[in-house]
Write a structure and sequence with these properties.
eight-stranded mixed beta sheet, protease, hydrolase, five-stranded antiparallel beta sheet, Rossmann fold, AB_hydrolase_fold, Prolyl_oligopep/macrocyclase, EC 3.4.21.26
């Protein structure tokens, strides 16, 4: 198969592998599975790593609580369980409302999202099966866990926003399924009566936009529309007390502005906005929800030039509101409380250690909850009382730290254009087996929370490093844009420079270095390996992008043109082909590439498993005779997102056992 694009002949000999269920693809996958099984059987640390990872995740894992109508909801994944279950909490007792393992004993169904009604009598749960992340929205009775009506099919991580004054109605969104009308819908729960037709409330304004919906303080309806993954969105707000919920009167918060903004209503009735407008690392502005356009915004929390503002919550009471702010400084979170009127200096809130704060949320009682984790500590939920006080674990207890502390240091490398790129290194001093991780996509920063996989690698004597490459969000929006679209090659160059620096500093030899990345990070590590085959001895690429001439035709690729560009544009196409791993491998036959482990998931609707299939075929065809192995670990009935814990442990153990075998990490090191 050959295409001619913008005057360039582009070979694609493995396009037949884009057909996931053809007889030829199934036979080819069978051969790859046998190759992988033979190789994995000889990896010495495979069993030990799996055992240690299983031990490290053997703890109860909670989500922050949500109180509705006097009932407290949360998810809890019991130690040793494969999936979290939705429960109601009454003191020390937890009662199960929905258990995906009971709903589907095969373990293929995941609980993707949930939201209780305003009175707490019902809860909407979203599930999907086989890793597709497309599923159904079900309304369950809280007291029995039984469905109260037929499910709504064809949703994908839909926002659900119950009406405060009408606990039998909620808004939800359709993104890429349904009857073709993408946008916000109003649903009225039938409770056994003949179902009423859902009302289409607001349509998406473009084919590649993503809608979102929230109801704030039981009064204000907020609708967002994100423009693909370009970190730009529009927002509108409506007062539900002022009209028909099926036909809201919209007020524009932000439209047609090159900025990313999200919003919340404080207990004081003020609209607070976290935004990149005039602040690449984000700031918080305040506005009147009745006149919310940017012309009326005032700054409530200024941008910090050295840290990104990753989250906020408006907490407290009407007369004593405060803004809780999470910033990240090179992977480490900071939590502060601010007076929104600026009358007092911010106060720092002590955290359990140097780690990551996520899911900062406020409740109607003025308190807030957040999740905390660090490299040595499993995620725990913490309660922050209103008006001060120290955070304390919820619902009680906490995680045990690792048996020995994890050392962390920061170094830096100089990329090809002279840019200084930070690199964080965990683990012991002196040379030794090292995994170098990078992501570098979609403006997402690397944060240092808990990973049983990483901790097991460190406990086995390895070193783990993270390159904060451009394209990620580690230094704000500008850092992202400097490694996006036609600049994406810079992210690859940053990773190569980080690898060269670790070797030059004596942290490891080339043979002891394994590059690791998933999804957009998988693209980076593959590009680095095929453009600079001597950069490392081995590579792990999990669910990667690889064929950048056709990424728009696979998975969610059409939504990602703001991140990577489009092959329809001659300039973008030239930039894509400058680093496309699949094509570089096709054109580099006979070279000595690093050992490569690719992982692919048959149900992957994001990157699409055609990418690792085609990349594996291209590398196997291109590698020099007798060269390092190219392996594909392929799974059915799972996708890009959440999966059963058992399957996650198996995947993590296999990947890091491969790294151990290739880098020389030996048992008892």
């Amino acid at each position: 198969m050959v295409d001619t694009l913008h005057g360039r002949v582009v070979a694609d000999p493995f396009r037949w592998l884009e057909a996931p269920d053809s007889a030829a693809t199934r036979r080819w996958l069978g051969d790859r599975s046998r190759e992988f099984a033979r190789a994995a059987a000889g990896w010495p640390l495979r069993g030990a790593l799996a055992s240690d990872i299983r031990h490290l995740v053997a703890a109860d894992l909670w989500s922050p609580p949500v109180r509705r109508g006097g009932t407290v909801f949360a998810t809890r994944r019991p130690a040793g369980a494969d999936h979290p279950v939705l429960v109601t909490v009454d003191g020390a007792r937890a009662r199960v409302v929905f258990d995906p393992a009971v709903f589907d004993p095969t373990g293929r169904t995941t609980l993707d999202a949930w939201e209780p009604s305003s009175d707490g009598r019902c809860v909407a749960v979203q599930t999907s099966t086989g890793g597709t992340e497309r599923g159904a929205l079900r309304v369950l009775a809280t007291d029995s866990g039984l469905p109260v009506e037929e499910p709504i099919p064809g949703v994908r991580y839909s926002h659900v926003a119950w009406l405060g004054g009408d606990p039998a109605s909620f808004y939800y969104v359709r993104r890429d399924d349904g009857d073709g009308r993408r946008g916000v819908w109003l649903h009225r729960v039938s409770r056994g009566r003949p179902p009423r037709t859902d009302v289409f409330v607001r349509a998406c304004r473009g084919p590649r936009t993503v809608p979102g919906v929230r109801v704030l303080r039981d009064r204000w309806l907020l609708v967002t529309e994100s423009h693909g993954t370009g970190h730009r969105n529009d927002l509108w707000i409506a007062d539900l007390r002022a009209g028909d919920p099926a036909a809201p009167s919209w007020r524009t918060v932000q439209e047609g502005v090159d900025a990313e903004t999200d919003a919340d209503i404080g207990p004081d009735g003020v609209l607070y906005l976290r935004t990149t407008l005039g602040a690449p690392r984000r700031r918080i502005c305040a506005a009147d929800p009745a006149a919310p356009s940017p012309a009326g915004w005032r700054e409530a929390v200024a941008e910090d030039p050295g840290a990104t503002l990753d989250g906020f919550a408006a907490a407290g009471h009407p007369g004593s509101a405060e803004l809780l702010v999470v910033r990240t400084r090179l992977g480490i979170s900071e939590l502060t409380a601010h007076d929104p009127a600026g009358g007092s200096a911010p106060r720092s809130i002590a955290l359990p250690g140097e780690g990551m704060v996520t899911r900062l949320e406020s409740g109607a009682d003025g308190a807030a909850h957040f999740c905390y984790a660090d490299v040595a500590t499993q995620q725990t939920v913490h309660l922050l009382p209103p008006g001060g006080g120290r955070p304390r674990p919820w619902p009680g207890g906490g995680s045990s730290p690792a048996a020995r502390p994890v050392r962390r240091r920061t170094t830096a490398c100089r990329s090809a254009d002279g840019t200084r790129v930070p690199v964080t290194v965990f683990g012991p001093d002196g040379p030794g087996p090292t995994i170098l991780h990078a992501y570098g996509g979609f403006g997402r920063p690397r944060q240092f929370g808990f990973s049983a996989t990483v901790l097991a690698w460190l406990r086995a004597g390895g070193r783990y490093a993270v390159a904060h490459v451009r394209g990620g969000g580690d230094a704000g929006r500008d850092w992202h844009l400097r490694g996006a679209r036609r600049n994406k090659i810079r992210a690859v160059q940053d990773l190569v420079a980080a690898a060269d620096t670790l070797v030059a500093e004596g942290a490891c030899s080339r043979a002891q270095l394994c590059l690791s990345g998933g999804s957009a990070g998988g693209l980076l590590v593959l590009a680095a390996a095929v453009l600079r085959p001597d950069v490392a001895g081995s590579v792990i690429a999990s669910a990667p992008l690889a064929d950048m001439a056709r990424f728009e035709r696979l998975g969610l690729g059409p939504m990602w043109t703001r991140e990577f560009g489009t092959a329809a544009d001659p300039g973008d196409f030239a930039a894509l082909m400058a680093y496309s791993p699949y094509h570089a491998a096709l054109e580099g036959r006979g070279r000595s590439y690093p050992a490569v482990l690719l992982t692919g998931f048959h149900g992957d609707t994001r990157t699409d498993a055609a990418h690792p299939r085609k990349m594996c075929a291209a590398l196997q065809a291109a590698a020099a005779p007798g060269g390092a192995p190219v392996l594909l670990r392929y799974e059915h009935d799972v996708g890009h997102g959440p999966r059963a814990v058992t399957k996650a442990i198996e995947l993590a153990a296999d990947a890091h056992a491969f790294a151990a075998a290739r880098t020389g990490l030996a048992p008892g090191r």
